[in-house]
Write a structure and sequence with these properties.
about 220 residues; alpha+beta; 5-stranded mixed sheet; 4 helices
């Protein structure tokens, strides 16, 4: 275990540090450690306990049916201290050119922008727009990695994917759809340009990239 390679984390509401077992060294700092699978305690340089603990996830990790895209932080909706929750992205784009759908129709709901609203937005879009092949339906009907609860990300969720796009991988320097319909309009959906991060709107009949996510 390389004592110089660890970062603070939280597992089971205790102070826990990550390690890489690449030098065969015991951490010099007493405390709890994890290798993403097992937890153990070091006291006076001696490993004194080993037990299975909740997995420790990190952005860019292949897990839970896709790639860990974001881990909730204090202040985020649905953040729980001592627990890891967040967003998982599909391993690649699920479309390079899908419409938001139902241009000229104002849907009921589908106007959430915050983290935690993308799934309900997707449900609302699918309920109000029967068109096949639209961005939300491609996500909502998706089965990948053993999971069937994928959805089109909300504005703020999509922005987290943009911020972490290098670690997640597989994005084009192009425009992506978010699941939010612009409030009180029947023509515009929300977008984000993954070349420069600009968040805007576009006519719902235009075809843009789509990347699905799920919650964990």
């Amino acid at each position: 275990m390389n004592a110089s390679f660890y970062t603070s984390c939280t597992v089971l509401a205790i102070d826990c540090r990550l390690y890489q077992d690449n030098m065969g060294l015991t951490p010099v700092v007493d405390g709890y450690y994890s290798d993403y699978t097992d937890c153990f305690q070091v006291v006076s340089g001696v490993i004194t306990a080993v037990s299975t603990c909740s997995p420790i996830y990190y952005v860019g990790q292949s897990a839970l049916g896709g790639i860990i895209a974001y881990i909730l932080e204090p202040g985020d909706p649905n953040y729980v201290a001592g627990e890891q929750h967040g967003l998982v992205a599909t391993t690649s784009n699920i479309s390079a050119g899908a419409e938001w759908g139902c241009w000229g129709t104002m849907l009921s709901g589908a106007d959430g922008t915050a983290i935690g609203t993308g799934q309900q937005n997707t449900i609302d879009i699918m309920a109000g727009c029967p068109t096949a092949g639209i961005a939300a339906r491609l996500c909502g009907d998706l089965v990948q990695g053993g999971y069937n609860d994928w959805f089109l990300p909300s504005k703020d969720e999509l922005n987290k994917l943009y911020i972490n796009k290098v670690a997640i991988g597989g994005f084009a320097d192009s425009i992506y759809w978010a699941s939010g319909e612009v409030f009180n309009t029947f023509t515009l959906g929300r977008t984000q340009n993954f070349a420069d991060g600009f968040q805007g709107t576009a006519y719902k009949y235009l075809a843009y990239h789509v990347r699905a996510i799920r919650y964990f």
